[in-house]
Amino acid sequence: MDQFTLNLIVVGLTFALYIGIAVWARAGSTAEFYAAGQGVPPVMNGMATGADWMSAASFISMAGIIAFGGYETSAYLMGWTGGYVLLALLLAPYLRKFGKFTVPEFIGDRFYSGGARLLAVICLIVISVTYVIGQMRGVGVTFSRFLEVSTDTGLYIGAAIVFAYAVFGGMKGITYTQVAQYVVLIVAYTIPALFISLQLTGSFLPQLGLIGSYAPSGGDMAFLAKLDAVVTELGFKAYTADSANYFNMFLFCMSLMIGTAGLPHVIIRFFTVPKVADARSSAGWSLVFIALLYTVAPAVGSMARLNLTTTMWPAAVTGNAFDGPAVSRADIDSKPELSWIRTWEKTGLLAMKDLNGDGLIQYINEPADLAANTKAAGEAAAALAKAADADKPAIEAKIAELAAAREGLLAEAKAGTSGKTFAEMGLKGNEVTKVDNDIMVLANPEIAALPGWVIAIVAAGALAAALSTAAGLLLAISSAISHDLIKGSINPNISEKGELLAARISMGGAIVVATYLGLNPPGFAAQVVALAFGLAAATIFPVLMMGIFSKRINKEGAIAGMLVGLIFTSVYIFIYKGWFFIPGTNWLPDTAANYYFGISPLSIGTVGAVLNFATAFVVSRVTKAPPAHVVELIESIRVPKGAGAAQAH
Fold it and tell me: DSSP characters for 40-105?
């Protein structure tokens, strides 16, 4: 059976399962649509939460980020898992005890303000819409590769599937569908990792293989040492190298943590369990289920990086990369085991170009300083040819200065064990001109020459990850519009049947908007994710924390804090990424040299959260304290149900 047919069968069976579950568990009331009737067992809710959280970013992108970012990008793992600890300890049980359906509803009641609720709705919609764009785009990319359709067509198919089980099933249908999707995605992620770990390290468990020995060289060298040796020989940064900016890394990790704890589509999952204790229990179970993927991700990323590198430099498998030639274009175009390169090149996510015309594809990394020097020298030479005689001496002096600097850079740029610079070896730059992070997990089984059924399962897993999170985000948008905006502000007397219809219509509309933005994304996935996490960290998380643990924060403080966090974080990101992600509208280049105090746009959510907290406390101190009934509400949320008064002994 050919690979396409196998992919079609496996993906088709999983889609039939999802739709069948949605029909079986369709929502018949608003309670079932918003919170699954608050009857989901903790273990099942933990599994559904894991699927809800492990999006296309986790399944498809994270290992790719780790593959090319190395140790420094471990902040993704620490931040995204650490956020669940905050949820389990500080938010989930209290929000469940509050007993309502949505985050804006809690904010509106706690801060006795329709304005606060409306602002929370705005923040929630912006966060969820920006986050869902990446999921819908991930669906399109996966379909384009494995079902051999265009990315846009794949996006339409994915949108139709989400519509079928999310609009009719609501939270009830989504929850049970996500349980099935978790099983699919975790099997799809771990099976290739087990095979590849056995190939490269001889260890069945990828977690142990990561710290084990490199098998092809006889086991006398640690796997990570081999990876470091290969990538540094080719001019790349060592995989295990330390971060150059620990302050920014800390802020980034913290932003991911509190952003996770503030993501509305994750928080609403804890409204679906029967009891308060179950909310804490399901958060613990979700950590267990998430850990099954997240502890494997570093091994998947590092092993994919080594497999990719040794594919491009075959001699690196048992020796040094430059002991033999790079892979040839002729081999790529003819050999079956390299067909994955040809396939991914068609998607545009992988690109190669023979810059020096030798018929080989050299995967190297010319040092950035040397590349910049070369570019500047070329620009100066072009300027010299056009300059007036009076200007030529100054330009010639600049060229001489660049040439002198280049000699020093060349001396430092000896390529690994060869003792020569890339220029001396006849290389003109990296000929693997594009390797998208998103292809590493999807291409991993093909790079490692695993069986076709493994490739098909990975395709189904990637789609399950993207669709499960997209459904959760769309439900968060739907509930914010129908329950918090329409019922909470516009038409408080709407019937339950009318509210349920409004919820389904708003979800359908949200799917249309998400599909359109997926077709015409406002920026790269990383940009969208940065805004979503930054906004969640700077707006939702602080107001929930203060709403639960501070009796003094009033509506004026909450609204002011959310506004400051929202505006500050958005503006900082737009300064570097472009206003509303429109290309060419950024004020400053998105490089470390231009960051204020070294803080990147990805890390700014932490600062926004601090400003939110500070603003709320200051404004609350100079305005009227919350009314007595709100103070009683806070106390009732924080005291366990049935707890008696303290007794003297």
Answer: --HHHHHHHHHHHHS-HIIIIIHHHHHHHHGGGGHHHHHHHHHHHHHIIIIIHHHHHHH--S-HHH
